[in-house]
Amino acid sequence: MSLPLPDSDALAASQALQQLIAAEIEQQGGAIAFSRFMELALYAPRLGYYSGGAAKLGSDGDFTTAPEITPLFGQALARAAAAIIAQSAPNIIEFGAGTGKLARDVLSALAEQGVQVDSYTIIELSGELRARQQQALQDFPQVRWLDGFPESYSGVVFANEVLDAMPIELVLKTADGWRRQMVTVEDGRFAYVQQELDAALSEQLLRQVPAADTLPEGYLTEIHPVACGFMASLARMFEGGRGAAFLFDYGFPAHEYYVDQRVGGTLMCHYRHHAHPEPFYLPGLQDITAHVDFTAMALAAQDAGLEVLGYMNQASFLLGCGIGELLLRTDPEDAMRYLPQSKAVQRLVSPAEMGELFKVLAVGREVELPEAIVRADRSHRL
Fold first, then answer.
1. Is 1.10.10.10 the CATH number for 1-382?
2. CA distances, 242 to each of 177, 245, 305, 366 (Å)
3. Which residue in 134, 65, 74 sits closest to 287, CA to CA?
4. What are phi and psi of 49, to 5 degrees?
């Protein structure tokens, strides 16, 4: 692959992580599940992609998220938040808050609307990103940081591009049936070997993949037990409370995810704004993601006691939140200010860019979405 070379410090950090992973493989008898490899590559203390010190977002990082594109994204989300706060409590939790820009934009917009927020809690695993957030949000005293879920909660939850970075299991259809992709070391390099599925993974496969038996031999795809567990944890957090969680990510419902044409799965890596499919390349220096199975997420939430409030593409959600009206607060005659914002909104809502690939799943307890958002609901397609 023709990718930018890391500097010597970054390369040394990646090599240290590779040695850590190789040592665990040896300790485990020669192989670990791909989910464990991905967990270490992303979250190993001080060396993993999210727990290390490398810049991840923006022009110097590996990818750009919706809040980085325009403040209108956060302003639109603030409208949805205000509607849920009016039915629950003046609290917001954000998982994986990036640079802190979404929190800043949401809190600023809510203040402008006269909506008080008592607490804005950020749950962030990356020390580098947490430091950036603390700097960016020092003027907002209601912001605090936690390492995990609170025991109980009422209010709003945002999770933008969080589910896609949760470790996944890779499964491969072979002549002998479905097998789990394991990671081993061969000739000093990471490589795949196959292992029979255990009972739990077999059950998850059958529940998650429609007509798994009819998919062709050689078919590789992802199973999402960690993300399903996250949805169940959301449900436990909302027990005894009320509110809604809005999850933004790229992905599909099951009947679009597991199709014959997607024979290689959806696993993708991001390194300095280059996308490629090689998860063993420079562990710790690149993001590793998979598309989200929104059917599996909705079922996991529903099974744990949450209601599926809505599911739609990002374009429909943002338009339902009035992002078009927010854009028109800038005078179109003022081309220098209006055109960049218009271009940014187009990027968020265009079917050719983020508007269709990115979806929004809303789950919650004892609240209702605003009618303008409900009109766009596609949950029947899950």
1. no
2. 43, 10, 12, 5
3. 65
4. -55, -45
Residue-wise pLDDT tens digits, 118-148 = 999 999 988 888 999 999 999 999 999 999 9
Tokens 């766009």 label which residue? 376
Burial grade of 23 (CB within 10 A; 0-12, 13-18, 19 or more)? exposed
CA dihedral 276, 281, 287, 291 (to 10 degrees): 50
**In this structure, are strands 155-160 and 91-95 parallel, antiparallel, or unpaired?**
parallel
SS (H, E, C) the chain: CCCCCCCHHHHHHHHHHHHHHHHHHHHCCCCEEHHHHHHHHHHCCCCCCCCCCCCCECCCCCECCHHHHCHHHHHHHHHHHHHHHCCCCCEEEEECCCCCHHHHHHHHHHHHHCCCCCEEEEECCCHHHHHHHHHHCCCCCCEEEECCCCCCCCEEEEEECCHHHCCCEEEEEECCEEEEEEEEEECCEEEEEEEECCHHHHHHHHHHCCCHHHCCCCCEEEECHHHHHHHHHHHHHHCCCCEEEEEEEEEECHHHHCCCCCCCCCCEEEECCEEECCCCCCCCCCEEECCEEHHHHHHHHHHCCCEEEEEEEHHHHHHHCCHHHHHCCCCCCCHHHHHHHHHHHHHHHCCCCHHHHEEEEEEEECCCCCHHHHCCCCHHHC
Predicted confidence at residue 366, as pLDDT, reads: 98
Decide: residue 342, CB within 10 A, 0-12 exposed, 13-18 middle, 19+ buried.
middle
Nearest partner of 181 among 38, 20, 42, 26, judged by Cα: 38
What residues in the chain have per-residue pLDDT under 70? Answer: 1, 53-63
